């Protein structure tokens, strides 16, 4: 299950970002002000699947990024320009509405989060919250999966990453400006259900690993962004997917959804046109990726960038 929180679904990641805004964690001490860095040019990986009259682009995303990254140009920009529709994991739902939906299913009933924890896990959890200057009771109403996700996302926010700079937000803004249709592979409710249906034991393990790996997350986030920007799906696969040592969780978050999406793509090839699909980068990396599953159906994916 390690690092599963770096492979969060779009709905969960964006809603968790909204929730962290209501919790005042103490960020690392600020450095003296410096001149704004020059925009950083990135070349993330892009693939396409095509037949005689249909082209489907496959682009891996990171749901939150720092500002000042340049990637929507070159082959990626041209691919979006040539597409009539942008397909993402979920529809474009305001963060506040997503947060409201998350809270509707992510609250405990008649229990508190800390009462569910083993003593050693509770001690480590309370120590982390104390270090972050967060009241230890702050997440008591939350299901373990939601508390784990919130802690997993918090380092992104503390490191200056934001959902408004994330790939989906940037792509949607560009697509709307160009008059393109928007579509989605899943719904917010479906993605929330993936976590809410997890056994309590799995949820608590997920939370415990988010606590233990909190300090490591800052370096992992930087490496993940670098590998994404360098177009290194092999590195991303090792970092994001191969560390997920809980087979049930890996199948729930990654592989079953990859199978669903590969089937969707295969059927979409029957309809002429050009489509740009943007999903979490972990789904296009490593073993059992969407591309691997398409290949098993006789559909080749060509690397464009």
Question: What does this molecule look like?
Answer:
- With 305 residues, this protein is an alpha/beta fold.
- The protein has one domain.
- 48% of the residues lie in helices and 11% in strands.
- The strands form 2 sheets. It has a 6-stranded mixed beta sheet, covered by helices on one side. Strands 1-4 form a two-stranded parallel sheet.
- A hairpin with a 3-residue loop joins strand 2 and strand 3.
- The chain is globular and about 60 Å long.
Tell me briefly what this model is.
By secondary structure, the chain is an alpha/beta fold. The protein has helices at residues 10-20, 74-82, 95-105, 119-131, 144-158, 167-177, 188-196, 200-212, 214-229, 233-241, 247-268, 290-296, and strands spanning 40-41, 46-50, 54-61, 69-70, 85-88, 181-184, 273-280, 302-303.
Q: What's the arrangement of secondary structure elements?
A:
Blueprint: H1 10-20, E1 40-41, E2 46-50, E3 54-61, E4 69-70, H2 74-82, E5 85-88, H3 95-105, H4 119-131, H5 144-158, H6 167-177, E6 181-184, H7 188-196, H8 200-212, H9 214-229, H10 233-241, H11 247-268, E7 273-280, H12 290-296, E8 302-303
Parallel strand pairs: 1-4, 3-7, 5-6, 5-7
Antiparallel strand pairs: 2-3, 2-8
Helix pairs in contact: 1-3, 1-5, 3-7, 5-8, 5-9, 9-10, 11-12
Signal peptide: 1-25
Organism: Novosphingobium taihuense
Protein name: TraB family protein
- Sequence of secondary-structure elements: HEEEEHEHHHHEHHHHHEHE
Total individual domains: 1
Low-pLDDT runs of 5+ residues are: 28-36
DSSP summary: helix tally: 12
Tell how many strands the DSSP assignment holds: 8
| Average pLDDT level | 88
Query: How does the overall form come out from the CA principal axes?
Result: globular
What kind of sheet is the major sheet? 6 strands, mixed
What portion of the residues fall into strands of 2 or more residues? 5-15%
Radius of gyration: 19 Å
Helix content: 40-55%
Strand order of the largest sheet: 6-5-7-3-2-8
Q: Pairing-aware structural class of the strands and helices?
A: alpha/beta
Cα separation of the termini: 31 Å
